[in-house]
């Protein structure tokens, strides 16, 4: 996959202008609805014997245009999004630097500079895709804005039962801790990557050593609690039980992002400094404060047993 970074104002003379079929969208999550857009574009590309291109924007438009001081969090940060695009067979991945200046373009200017000038032959986007200043351009106006320079296809909403598959709904599931439902919309378990760092090493003293994971991107963070997880390290996969939270048995203050600590089943390797991926399979309980260390140890044993039972029942491990 060829990745092409573009800053506004675009200089089309410095970019290859071979004809292509272009899928448009922000694609946070690259969920099943997004995949439908890209697969529709891929079908057209095969029929017309043209490369499959995808155009996205970075950072998220809300991060640039919002007045909120809270940092934007992502389902799929840019690097993960790129990996998903490769899996979908994308030939050319255009990443447009989203700035206030770029956001002020009229819909007609966006089409002229970023589609027509790149020799796009066919555009595919979801029913809710908008472009240009204040999102005034959409799939109802693109025919007029394109002035016949390319054809286009609009992909309708994809529903899971009565619920529209969307990044918004996936975020709600993450925040509610309903991670076992996410594959229905995302097509895979929710995944985050990070680095194993030094922690308080309290788990080792309790008989349950843990890997303390520091996220390397601004991910959407699941609801605090205890989860069954899958951990990938150096291409190998392991299962475990994860506490995400503030460890109220030992700490009074709940400040900043919660800690993420994984007890990996039947694992004794030294992985400090390693890059890992964590997949969230199932939330099994809330985080809570225990009256004694013995009560905590008893609960961790129960958490481990419940996690293993879940994995066996769902034929994931053991």
From TrEMBL:
<keyword id="KW-0808">Transferase</keyword>
<dbReference type="Pfam" id="PF01687">
    <property type="entry name" value="Flavokinase"/>
</dbReference>
<dbReference type="GO" id="GO:0009231">
    <property type="term" value="P:riboflavin biosynthetic process"/>
</dbReference>
<keyword id="KW-0285">Flavoprotein</keyword>
<comment type="pathway">
    <text>Cofactor biosynthesis; FMN biosynthesis; FMN from riboflavin (ATP route): step 1/1.</text>
</comment>
<dbReference type="InterPro" id="IPR002606">
    <property type="entry name" value="Riboflavin_kinase_bac"/>
</dbReference>
<keyword id="KW-0548">Nucleotidyltransferase</keyword>
<dbReference type="GO" id="GO:0009398">
    <property type="term" value="P:FMN biosynthetic process"/>
</dbReference>
<dbReference type="Pfam" id="PF06574">
    <property type="entry name" value="FAD_syn"/>
</dbReference>
<dbReference type="InterPro" id="IPR023468">
    <property type="entry name" value="Riboflavin_kinase"/>
</dbReference>
<dbReference type="InterPro" id="IPR014729">
    <property type="entry name" value="Rossmann-like_a/b/a_fold"/>
</dbReference>
<dbReference type="InterPro" id="IPR004821">
    <property type="entry name" value="Cyt_trans-like"/>
</dbReference>
<keyword id="KW-0418">Kinase</keyword>
<dbReference type="GO" id="GO:0008531">
    <property type="term" value="F:riboflavin kinase activity"/>
</dbReference>
<keyword id="KW-0067">ATP-binding</keyword>
<feature type="domain" description="Riboflavin kinase">
    <location>
        <begin position="185"/>
        <end position="312"/>
    </location>
</feature>
<dbReference type="GO" id="GO:0006747">
    <property type="term" value="P:FAD biosynthetic process"/>
</dbReference>
<dbReference type="GO" id="GO:0005524">
    <property type="term" value="F:ATP binding"/>
</dbReference>
<comment type="pathway">
    <text>Cofactor biosynthesis; FAD biosynthesis; FAD from FMN: step 1/1.</text>
</comment>
<dbReference type="InterPro" id="IPR015864">
    <property type="entry name" value="FAD_synthase"/>
</dbReference>
<keyword id="KW-0547">Nucleotide-binding</keyword>
<dbReference type="InterPro" id="IPR023465">
    <property type="entry name" value="Riboflavin_kinase_dom_sf"/>
</dbReference>
<dbReference type="GO" id="GO:0003919">
    <property type="term" value="F:FMN adenylyltransferase activity"/>
</dbReference>
<keyword id="KW-0511">Multifunctional enzyme</keyword>
<comment type="similarity">
    <text>Belongs to the ribF family.</text>
</comment>
<keyword id="KW-0288">FMN</keyword>
<protein>
    <recommendedName>
        <fullName>Riboflavin biosynthesis protein</fullName>
        <ecNumber>2.7.1.26</ecNumber>
        <ecNumber>2.7.7.2</ecNumber>
    </recommendedName>
</protein>
<keyword id="KW-0274">FAD</keyword>
<dbReference type="InterPro" id="IPR015865">
    <property type="entry name" value="Riboflavin_kinase_bac/euk"/>
</dbReference>
